[in-house]
Design brief:
Number of helices of chain A: 18
Chains: A alpha/beta (about 425), B alpha+beta (about 160), C alpha+beta (about 525)
Structural class of chain A: alpha/beta
Largest sheet of chain A: 4 strands, parallel
Oligomer: heterotrimer
Strand content of chain C: 15-25%
Largest interface: A-B, 56 and 42 residues
Shape of chain C: elongated
Chain lengths: ~425, ~160, ~525
């Protein structure tokens, strides 16, 4: 498989403009500005089949096409670098080691929607990453890739690196926009949608780091080359962040559709320390856990994982061996969501903390019969009834842990302690 | 004593505001600037920022209190933030926190008496592959072991 | 208006493009439960109580933010909707304190109401409730209970969008979210207590009304605020014949949903103190109780024989009373100038949202009835001070206040050879009178006020005056009768009918056409000063 996203990783000084340029960097950007019209750029990306890599998987070209072309308002392009999904660290790798790929992708996306101001919203904790991005943007300004009359055209573009301040919810695009407007990271009610009413009520597109980083390659090699990889509905390649009880944790790039079991056992070296696999989360902390026997037919693409009852999400693969107490794991994730709930809407604000408290109680030997069905019921009451998908993200894993490992939960409740040997 | 930006900080403030299409968008970076200047964002700092940003202090308070990285109270020189989310938990984060608690004699949320360290447990820092790990001020310390941890703590004066 | 046809629970409803489902439903008489939605505030969409089923849409949608579309099918009572309402209520109740026995909101609480309608189940919550600040004073009129708060943010949006004072904010995150003021700031903007009205639960309650009376004991009477000439529509709510509180009544032509704090609490000042229950006549030792017969004869004698008399009417007198007063004075002292008390003050920008710069709710009505003119009150006071009058009839106004000019007025009034004062209490002015007549206050009156913009609105009696006290219009009628002009009116409605016949502007108007929303004179709202 040819690397699209990790092609510059491992090269000395890959973060510098000089190295990036020596490897063909910004040729796509120049081609776009000099030779392409926004409409054909959007068509090209549509044909590539590129889908959003932040977790939602929405077709990127289609998202761009929702921006009204003749709106008199300024248009904004935002690169979502707020990576905070548990188990996910692929964007950070790109930010620190291939920032120019991200920036070039950001520029291309901005051009597609004719935006003249692009933001890179990076989570506040990634201080080193934000400095690297700022330096890269400065290099680009000096080189004339960013600024006024780029490549002698009449296209101007400014890029602002903007640090968040610690809130997972700001990875949700409308919460990100609320934060970028200088406020609390509160998701906005939809409709209207960001494409028509986004940042300051202006047409806005928010794209994930990984999505944008694929654009230079796609423009260089062509949509067809990208679409030739992957499956029918999940084109191209994707980054997978692998962590937990695995021999070789790290970021991997795979062609969409790669068999999940093979990936874990061969590429990642299998469960660490010769232990047995107990469960694996395929797409970040918000996605339902899968039992080992469920992996048999699962391939790493959107459709296959969904058919298995989970979701590809951010591709954050969390591996759990047979020493893992699933009650503890579920409690950990529940606490994460309770901590990160923005608190705006009632099902999430109250429900997440309720679930956290019940899980905690079970974990600490005070569980009651009825607690499990209660959590399932609460989860069902949150799903689909909130302002934003955070509610679903909290509800899904809670229900999945219980459904997939019910015996263990019931034993934990009955014995008032963990019945699995923990680390 | 009313808090105010130094002339350099004021210049930085103006430059920051000028970057954004609307003044209010500069709120987060301005709050970082104020936190750097004043140490933490107490009521005086918030009132000052509110004045500069032409917003009500209640609104600014709402913003400050939403995000984890703004400190409304003073903290130690070195803010130890140990990640506790699933991958790090699977990787032994609890042990790391227990070690720090033992070595420094403080609980999460507390600061050592000499003002050197503050300990917090935080959520996923996007470093899951090198668990367990922690962030101290701006730096990430990954793949922690007991030895590494002790060395790091010793080095932080 | 672009008509749009939708169905709500199977019934066809014709609404208009641009309306939301919750608006269209309300206009069709279908109430969709909600907390955070308010017709005068921006859409928040956070309570999730108004989730409804829209045919062909897989997820439930919030009615407050869903635009109507041709052919849309809305279900407000489907099993899915009823289930989600139960669920939302459960979520709101898990951290809610069971304060009902001590909470002022009981009886008008939307949490109670919707729970009884849509849930009624016992709590499944057995882990510790989240705690927050209780009985926290926000301002002179508002007290906050953080545990009762459901974070609907109506109060925050009110201060952002209506008063634009922005004192309240949501702070913290998740289920630690709460409403707060900054540091030691105070919620004291001129419209602050409106947040109590819009708070669906007992999180924001009125300090003045705190623990006074259970709301289901209140007798509610629609009326008009006597605070100023804006004429905010109110509900006067009384218990055991005493006014307990004002609540605003919705009138989009006047005050929308609001009332200012000054108006809201003005009933204390306007009805308090020891009531005059009997007429009084000055004799050698001072004022002594007298019969109505004797007192009224004394008034007649005193005014008829006066060389130069003046009539001063309170701005709170009704049109009916003013109409009769003008007739009376014309009969008794034809050349006497008549003025309605009218003084202006500076208003802040926030006050101007609602308030008028005066304290004379019916100055315009009075002028329409022939009492008062532009600048007339000031010049009449001047004449009084310079001793131009030998007699005066003062109705319902304390002229001698705490300020300096008041004392000069005292001296001037003392020099009058005849002073009759008609008021609810023995005011400082009344103490100087030769005849004192007990009167009624606005809460005991039935009648009309004409507001600054020329809208005629109806006052209704919310409480009953003491038995021995006559309505002001009854006093004027009796005096007219004794003076030889017998008018056969026995109700304010009849008096209004008469004035509508005599005052051109009021032709064709009656209590029936005034209704409870009032009626605009001349069809246009021209503001007078």
């Amino acid at each position: 498989m040819e690397k699209v996203l990790l092609r510059n990783i491992g090269v000395t000084d890959s973060h510098s403009l000089a190295v990036y340029q020596s490897r063909g960097g910004y040729q796509s950007w120049e081609k776009v500005v000099r030779n392409m019209k926004p409409a054909e750029l959007i068509e090209e990306v549509k044909s590539s089949g590129l889908r959003g890599r932040g977790g939602a998987g929405f077709p990127t070209g289609m998202k761009w096409s929702f921006v009204p072309k003749d709106s008199p308002k300024p248009k904004y392009l935002v690169c979502n670098a707020d990576e905070s999904e548990p188990g996910t660290f692929k964007d950070r790798l790109l930010i620190e080691q291939d920032p120019h790929a991200i920036i070039e992708g950001t520029l291309i996306a901005a051009f597609a929607i004719q935006s003249h101001t692009a933001f890179i919203y990076i989570r506040g904790e990634l201080v080193a990453g934000s400095k690297i991005l700022e330096r890269a943007v400065e290099e680009d300004c000096r080189a004339g890739y960013i600024g006024k009359n780029i490549f002698g055209s009449n296209y101007d573009l400014d890029v602002i690196v903007h640090r968040g301040a610690g809130a997972y919810i700001c990875g949700e695009e409308t919460a990100l926009l609320s934060s970028l407007e200088g406020g609390r990271g509160w998701p906005k009610v939809k409709p209207p949608f960001p494409a028509t009413h986004g940042l300051f009520g202006c047409p806005t597109v928010v794209n994930n780091v990984e999505t944008l980083a694929a654009l230079p390659w796609i423009l260089e090699r062509g949509a067809a080359a990208y679409a030739a990889m992957g499956t029918e509905k999940s084109k191209g390649t994707k980054l997978f962040s692998v962590s937990g009880h695995i021999t070789r944790p790290g970021v991997y790039e795979l062609e969409m559709g790669y068999p999940f079991k093979k990936f874990l056992e061969e590429d990642c070296g299998g469960v660490a320390n010769g232990r047995k696999l107990k469960g694996v989360i395929p797409g970040g902390g918000s996605m339902p856990v899968l039992r080992p026997e469920e992996l048999e037919k699962v391939n790493l693409d959107y459709e296959s994982v969904q058919a298995a009852g989970s979701m590809l999400g951010s591709g954050g693969v969390i591996v759990m061996d047979d020493t893992t107490c699933m009650v503890r794991a579920a409690s950990n994730i529940a606490r994460f969501y309770a901590h990160e709930s923005c608190g705006q809407c009632s099902p999430c604000r109250e429900g997440c903390h309720w679930m956290e408290k019940i899980f905690h109680r079970i974990e600490h030997g005070e569980g009651q019969t009825g607690d499990l069905d209660l959590i399932l019921n609460i989860s069902g009451n949150i799903m689909g009834n909130t302002i934003c998908p955070f509610g679903d993200a909290a509800a899904m894993p809670a229900a999945a842990f219980i459904r997939k490992f019910r015996d263990e939960f019931e034993a934990h409740i009955a014995e008032k302690r963990c019945t699995v040997s923990t680390q | 004593m009313a808090l105010e930006f130094s002339p350099e900080a004021l210049k930085q403030f103006e430059a920051t505001v000028a970057r954004y299409p609307k003044k209010e968008a500069a709120m987060l970076p301005v709050l970082y600037l104020a936190q750097k200047e004043f140490g933490h964002l107490g009521p005086e700092a918030i009132a000052y920022v509110a004045r500069l940003m032409e917003q009500s202090p209640a609104r600014v308070q709402g913003v400050v209190s939403f995000y984890t990285m703004y400190n409304v109270k003073p903290i130690g020189r070195h803010h130890i933030q140990v990640c506790r989310t699933l991958s790090c938990a699977l990787g032994g984060a609890e042990k790391i926190t227990a070690l720090i608690k033992k070595q420094l004699g403080i609980e999460p949320g507390q600061t050592t008496a000499d003002g050197r360290f503050t300990l917090s447990e935080v959520e996923c820092l996007a470093s899951c592959g090198t668990a367990p790990m922690m962030q101290v001020n701006d730096e990430y310390y990954e793949g922690l072991t007991e030895e590494k941890l002790t060395a790091i703590l010793d080095s932080l004066k | 208006m672009d008509p749009v046809k939708i169905t709500i629970d199977g019934k066809e409803v014709v609404t208009a493009k641009g309306k939301t489902v919750i608006q269209a439903a309300a206009e069709a008489g279908v109430a969709i439960p909600h907390y955070c939605y308010h017709s005068k505030l921006s859409i928040a969409g956070n309570c999730r109580m108004c989730l409804v089923e829209i045919e062909k849409m897989p997820k439930l949608q919030i009615a407050c933010n869903t635009q109507v579309a041709e052919g849309m099918g809305v279900l407000t009572q489907s099993p899915k909707v009823l289930a989600v309402r139960k669920a939302v209520l459960e979520f709101l109740l898990i951290n809610h304190p069971v304060d009902c026995p001590i909470c002022d909101q009981a009886g008008e609480c939307q949490l109670q109401n919707y729970y009884m309608e849509h849930n009624r189940e016992a709590s499944r919550f057995e882990v510790g409730k989240q705690h927050d600040r209780k009985k926290t004073i926000f301002g002179p009129n508002v007290i906050f209970d953080g545990e009762r708060c459901i974070k609907c943010t109506r109060c925050v949006r009110f201060c952002q969008e209506i008063t634009k004072t922005d004192e309240l904010a949501v702070i913290n995150r998740g289920d630690h979210s709460t409403i707060a003021l900054f540091n030691d700031q105070v919620l004291d903007n001129p419209l602050s207590a409106n947040v109590v009205d819009i708070c669906p639960v007992g999180a924001l309650t009125d300090r003045d009304f705190r623990f006074k009376v259970r709301v289901w004991y209140l007798q509610k009477t629609p009326s008009v605020c006597p605070g100023c000439s804006t004429g905010c529509n109110i509900s006067v709510e009384a218990y055991q014949n005493r006014i307990a509180r004002f609540k605003p009544r919705i009138n989009e032509a006047v005050n929308s949903h609001w009332i200012c704090d000054e108006g809201r609490y003005c009933f204390h000042e306007l009805t308090g103190g020891e009531r005059l229950t009997t007429p009084m006549i000055r004799q050698e030792g001072g004022l002594v109780p007298a019969t109505w017969e004797n007192a009224l004869q004394a008034v007649l004698a005193g005014l008829r024989s006066a060389k130069a008399a003046a009539g001063i009417l309170s701005g709170r007198s009704t049109n009916e009373e003013t109409f009769l007063f003008a007739k009376l004075m014309k009969k008794l002292a034809p050349s006497s100038p008549l003025e309605v008390c009218y003084q202006e003050r500076e208003l802040s920008e926030t006050q101007k949202v609602l308030m008028s710069p005066d304290r004379a709710p019916n100055f315009r009505g009075a002028r329409d009835m022939g009492v008062g003119s532009n600048g007339g009150y000031e010049s009449l006071l001047q004449k009084l001070l310079t001793g131009d009058f030998s007699a005066a009839y003062v109705v319902g106004e304390e002229l001698i206040g705490a300020n300096g000019a008041g004392e000069r007025l005292r001296a001037a009034l003392q020099k009058l050879s005849f002073l009759v004062v008609q008021d609810i209490r023995l005011s400082e002015t009344a103490k100087l009178a030769h005849v004192v007549l007990p009167a009624t206050h606005f809460g005991e009156k039935e009648g009309t006020y004409t507001n600054r913009k020329g809208r005629v609105q109806k006052l209704n009696a919310a409480v009953i005056a003491p038995e021995s006290v006559l309505q002001d219009w009854q006093t004027f009628l009796r005096l007219l009768d004794l003076a030889g002009e017998k008018l056969s009116y026995s109700t304010p409605s009849q008096i209004f009918q008469a004035l509508a016949g005599e005052v051109a502007l009021y032709r064709g108007i009656s209590y029936a056409t005034i209704g409870d929303q009032g009626i605009q004179l001349g069809g246009g709202g021209v503001e007078q000063s």
